[in-house]
Each structure stands twice: as C-alpha cells, then as structure tokens.
Design brief:
The strands form two sheets. This protein has an eight-stranded parallel barrel, surrounded by six helices. By secondary structure, the protein is an alpha/beta fold. The chain has one domain (10-232, 276-316): TIM Barrel (Alpha-Beta Barrel), CATH 3.20.20. It has helices at 43-55, 73-86, 114-128, 147-159, 173-186, 208-215, 243-246, 253-272, 277-286, 301-308, 318-328, and strands spanning 16-18, 25-27, 29-32, 60-62, 94-99, 133-138, 163-169, 192-194, 218-222, 293-296. The longest helix has 20 residues, at 253-272. Helix 1 crosses helix 2 (73-86) and helix 4 (147-159) packs across helix 5 (173-186). Helices cover 40% and strands 13% of the residues. The structure holds NADP nicotinamide-adenine-dinucleotide phosphate. NADP nicotinamide-adenine-dinucleotide phosphate (NAP) binds at residues 32-35, 62, 139, 169-170, 194, 222-228, 231, 233, 242-243, 278, 295-299, 303, 306-307.
Length: 329
C-alpha cells in the first residue's frame, strides 16, 4: 500500500460541535471500533475504514479495553494502523478508550475500582502504543465501589497526563449528576457522557440530555443505527455479511424480524425526505443541539460515506416528527 496522505480538504467536509463547556470540538459523526477491528477481522478493511473516516473530517475514534474479539484486539489493530499511517497525524486525532466491563480474570479486571481503572488504561496505552488517550471513560456505573473512588481515579489519570479529559458512559441521570459534582470539586470536570440513543431507544430524552446540557457536559450517542437495524439492509431479508447474521452476539436476527414493520415504515419517511433510513436515523439525533456527536460503527467504507450525508439535512418538519412518533409507538 502506498504511503497514506490525508485528504487536504477533509476539514471542509463536516461540522464540528463544541463538547459541553469545554474547549474541545468533535465532529458531528465519530467512528467507533467495537466491531470489525478484532483479531480475525480483515486488517486492510479496518485500515481503510479509519482512512476513509479521517479523509472526510472524522477526527474522533472511540475504543474500549475489551473491544475485539478477543478483548484488547481492537486497540491492537488501531495501534498498528496508527503506526503505519497516522504517526504524523496524532495531534489531529481524538482517541478514546474505556474501562468498566469484564476485561481480565480475578477481582481487579472489572467494574470501577482505582486498581482496575489504572491497570486497564496502562494496558490500553501499551496496546495502542500511545503516551496518552484524549478521553478516558468509566464504561458503566459500579454500585459496589464508592463513586468518590472511581471519580478520584479518573481525576488522577488526568493529573498524571494519561488522559486529557474524562467521560462517563451508561450512567443514569441521578448517578451522573453526583459524579459530575465530585469531578468538578476535584478540578477535572466531566467532558462528555456516552449513552445509547437511537429512534429505537429514547431513554436519554427522559432527563439525561437536559442534565448534560445544564451541566455543560457533552453528549456522544452510541448505536444510533441500533446496530444496523435502522438502515435499509434488513428490508429485503437477512444479508449474510450483516452483523445480525455474521456475529449475533449483541444483535439477534429475532430482534431484527421483530422490528421489521417499524423499519419499513421509517424507511418510507426517510425516502420522503430524500434520505435513506441510516441517514434519517442520524439526522434525527443531530437535530438536537444538546448532542455533540453521533458515534457510528461501520463494516465498509461506503457506509461511512453514506452516513456522512446525514449531516447535510438535520431539519425535520413537525409533520415528519409526528409521523415518526406514531410509527415508534
Ligand atoms: N459505551 C458503550 O457502552 C457502547 C456500547 C456499544 C457501542 N459503543 C460505541 O458506539 C460505536 C457504534 O456502535 P454500533 O456499531 O452499534 O453503531 P451503529 O451505527 O448503530 O451500527 C453500526 C453497524 O450498522 C451497519 N451500518 C452502518 N452504516 C450503515 C449503512 N449506511 N447502511 C447499512 N448498514 C450500515 C454496520 O453493520 P453491518 O456489519 O451489518 O454492515 C455497522 O457496523 C461502537 O463502535 C462503540 O465505539 C459504546
């Protein structure tokens, strides 16, 4: 492969939104490496996905300690891609990782202790061959560890220069509010919250988005396409190369079939807006200015290009929103 040179027009292709009250701008669409970057996934395809994203202004790449499979392998793949193609672009990248779910056996490889967070981040930095990550997240709340310990660990991680900013993922509003207050007192304000949010899962509308906006914390939403269900790929059957058929760990074919009538109806609304369903699903999230970025996944570069078009049409009429709400009831 020839030496990679990023597209010089990339920063004109996408908008950047401010992350809460911070100085950090994130692209309206970011790319996550949960799927398609594991040990047995095609390395050249993984490499092309990152290049395609960056060439189109996507500066933010989201990882976690346990993305793979096996655990850690997405970070290894990403580290390899950074070394081959992105060495001179490090200062133009926002790289995140997380700890909070099962990672290694025994009492120190899961949840929210200071021991786990520090050890895990050190491992992530080694796998990606980085000196620091831009954002380090606690991946989920841990009700058996004092919030002060987990937030204290995040604060110390920043003070030691291992991460520039910290975030929380999957925290409910009440616990998030407490965590924000502890972090603020420690002098490391929470940068961003990462919840699941899509047309099919709207829990964040019940308090979380208001809390984030009132607290000056950014919002980056994961699985905006409900893992691929909010696209036109399942309308004519179950493609062999789709996540539901190929993987099935997190998205089951039964789930897809169950949602099919709604998918088809939403697809019609998307067509009436001159979009496809994936684009409409992303636009529908971006219409809300409390959202900083929509965190997509992709198995092919063409999907990234397709999804980026969503940023060009983020206005919805009242009638369109009503139609969508009726379908989702
Ligand atoms: N914090 C957390 O707890 C948490 C949890 C989950 C995810 N995340 C983050 O969020 C990221 C995104 O999650 P996700 O992968 O579930 O997001 P998603 O955007 O809802 O689903 C991505 C999948 O949809 C399909 N797809 C994407 N664009 C398409 C298009 N234009 N047309 C047809 N199919 C398309 C592809 O699947 P096919 O394989 O079927 O092509 C792709 O892998 C993850 O990588 C991770 O960084 C965080």
């Amino acid at each position: 492969m020839a030496k990679y040179k990023a597209d010089s027009k990339r920063y004109d292709k996408i908008n950047y939104r401010r992350t809460g009250n911070s100085g950090l701008l994130l692209p309206e669409i970011s790319l996550g490496l949960w799927h398609n970057f594991g040990k047995n996934d095609d390395f050249d395809n993984a490499r092309n996905l990152i290049k395609c994203a960056f060439d189109n202004g996507i500066t933010h790449f989201d990882l976690a300690n346990n993305y793979g499979p096996p655990y850690g392998s997405a970070e290894k793949t990403f580290g390899k891609i950074l070394k081959k193609d992105f060495k001179k672009y490090r200062d133009q990248l926002i790289i995140s990782s997380k700890a909070g779910y099962d990672m290694w056996p025994g009492p120190y490889g899961n949840f929210g202790s200071k021991k786990y967070l520090f050890s895990s981040l050190d491992q992530s930095l080694k796998r990606m061959n980085l000196d620091y990550v831009d954002i380090f997240y606690h991946h989920r709340p841990d009700y058996n560890t004092p919030l002060e310990e987990t937030m204290g660990a995040l604060d110390l991680i920043v003070k030691q220069g291992k991460a520039l900013y910290v975030g929380l993922s999957n925290y409910q509003p009440k616990e998030a509010e407490k965590a924000f207050s502890i972090l603020k007192k420690l002098g490391t304000p929470c940068l961003i919250h990462q919840p699941r949010y899509s047309l099919f899962d709207r829990w964040v509308e019940d308090g979380l988005l208001d809390l984030l906006s009132n607290s000056g914390v950014g919002a980056i939403c994961f699985s905006p396409l409900a893992q691929g269900m909010l696209t036109d790929k399942y309308i004519k059957g179950l493609p062999k190369d789709s996540r539901a058929v190929k993987d099935g760990r997190y998205l089951k074919t039964d789930q897809v079939l169950d949602k099919l009538p709604k998918i088809k109806a939403l697809h019609e609304v998307a067509l009436s807006r001159n979009q496809n369903l994936a684009q409409m699903a992303i636009s529908w999230i971006l219409k809300d200015d409390r959202i900083t970025s929509v965190l997509i996944g992709a198995s092919k570069p063409a999907q990234i290009l397709d999804n980026l078009k969503a940023t060009k049409n983020t206005t919805f009429s009242t009638e369109e929103l009503e139609k969508i709400n009726i379908i989702l009831k």
